[in-house]
Design goal:
heterodimer, A: about 240 residues, Rossmann fold, six-stranded mixed beta sheet, three-stranded antiparallel beta sheet, B: about 200 residues, mainly alpha, 2 domains, 10 helices
Chain lengths: ~240, ~200
């Protein structure tokens, strides 16, 4: 295929929700190993992530991840990308830990017993073998987040999309997760409103009202973003309603 | 009434889900075929005794699990008392309680993935007719799975109500709970899509 370019390719891709345009047509080619997408609440960053993940279809233009259309070609998308939702409770489907971990593998075509064995093996490697039969409801918020990350990692996607991956977690959990992210060989796309975690990114994009307002190395984008947010805060902008 | 799986390793947990489903179906036929209140009462007691391998606490908790059925017991019992057929009413109530107790026991001792596999196995013959068997099995299993999820949601809503109100919420939670159910369905669909080839 000629369009099998590696990386995430958006060609004038836009998205609307309920008839309201959330993302202006964006043209982007993301190839760096560590990418950050910065924006405040309501800027359209979660919509952008869902668009890249193939959870919603673009209403204009096209999206390709390593040459695959993530909305149409779900089988291909499973190998190409994984997404970690902001709220683990929106991601977890199954009542016990090992079932939750095995689900994605079964979807990738692994027979159930082998998928369960892989799930248990992964838990053992992470020092969490005793979690296998535990009800997911018995895990803490941070532990559920970790479970979701493990479920995504087991599927070995080339790109992992992270939606506010550290928000709401206690400091030790944040530190451990950040360490875990740093060791991953997959391409990571992190969306967040908090620039603190993006200092080591290769490329940072600043999204505002569904448009990219800055795109570059963190040393250039983050100070500009922080300045703008401080000014906005000073003028009580959080009272504004979007749209 | 219907609750998440009881984590444990009793003989009932080890029994294959298909066997348990078949036993439940068999019990349903047997309970429907007899109209002897004494036999039906014995069947209810037998199902109750079958909870014992899960421990005394679990067995003692059965009446509480059946408690939400009280409006049905009241309506059916009242109707038959008014009609002057108390025995017929007793028979219907005993059948209902026995089957609910047995179904709850099955759900308490059967893992979700085992249930899903059993549904798939039962539907397999329809594969040849072109029915999307795996998707139907997933839908059936999800229906069962989301009963406890919604029960938790209802509890959370009731807590949120009580945090800012002096009166009990009662029926006023119906509308928000319906919306919550639709919300849960949307999210489950998205979570399924994120990690599977379909939906």
């Amino acid at each position: 295929m000629t369009d099998a370019a590696p990386g995430i390719m958006l060609s004038a891709a836009g998205a609307s929700l309920g008839g309201k345009r959330i993302l202006q047509p964006l043209t982007l080619h993301l190839t760096e190993p560590r990418i950050g997408i910065l924006g405040r609440n309501g800027s359209g960053k979660t919509t952008l992530l869902r668009l890249i993940a193939g959870l919603i279809a673009p209403d204009a233009g096209s999206v390709r991840v390593d040459g695959i259309d993530p909305y149409q070609d779900r089988k291909g998308a499973l190998a190409a990308l994984g997404i970690l939702f902001q709220n683990p409770d929106h991601q977890i489907l199954f009542p016990t830990v090992e079932e939750e971990l095995a689900f994605g593998l079964i979807q990738q075509g692994l027979p159930r017993p082998r998928a369960l064995a892989r799930a248990q093996e992964a838990l053992r490697v992470e020092g969490r073998a005793h979690w296998a039969r535990a009800p997911v409801t018995s895990l803490s918020q941070g532990q559920r987040h970790y479970l979701c990350l493990m479920a995504v990692l087991l599927m070995q996607p080339g790109t992992i999309l992270l939606d506010e991956p550290l928000a709401g977690l206690d400091l030790p959990t944040q530190a451990r997760l950040a360490r875990r992210f740093a060791t991953l060989s997959a391409r990571l796309v992190t969306i967040t409103h908090d620039p603190a975690g993006l200092n080591t990114a290769d490329r940072v994009l600043w999204l505002e009202a569904g448009q990219i307002v800055a795109d570059g190395p963190p040393g250039q984008v983050i100070p500009a973003f922080t300045d703008a947010m401080t000014r906005e805060g000073a003028r009580d902008a959080d009272a504004d309603l979007s749209g | 009434m219907l609750t998440p799986t009881f984590p444990g390793d009793s003989p009932l947990h080890r029994l294959a889900a298909g066997v348990k489903l078949a036993a439940l179906a068999g019990l349903g036929i047997a309970v429907g075929a007899t109209a002897q209140p004494v036999l039906l009462g014995l069947a209810l007691v037998a199902v109750w005794l079958a909870y014992l391998p899960l421990g005394l606490t679990e067995a003692a908790g059965l009446p509480q699990r059946l408690w939400p059925l009280w409006p049905f017991v009241l309506v059916i019992g009242g109707w038959h008392l008014w009609r002057g057929t108390p025995e017929a009413g007793l028979i219907v109530i005993l059948r209902m309680l026995t089957m609910f107790a047995a179904a709850t026991l099955l759900l308490r001792t059967t893992r979700f993935d085992a249930l899903l596999a059993a549904f798939s196995g039962l539907l397999r013959p329809f594969d040849r007719l072109g029915l999307p068997v795996d998707r139907i099995a997933l839908a059936l299993a999800m229906t069962v799975r989301f009963i406890p999820v919604l029960a938790l949601r209802a509890e959370a809503l009731a807590t949120a109500w009580r945090a800012r109100a002096a009166r009990k919420p009662r029926h006023r939670l119906l509308a928000p709970l319906t919306l919550a159910a639709l919300d849960e369905a949307d999210r489950a669909a998205e979570a399924l899509r994120a990690r599977s080839g379909s939906v």
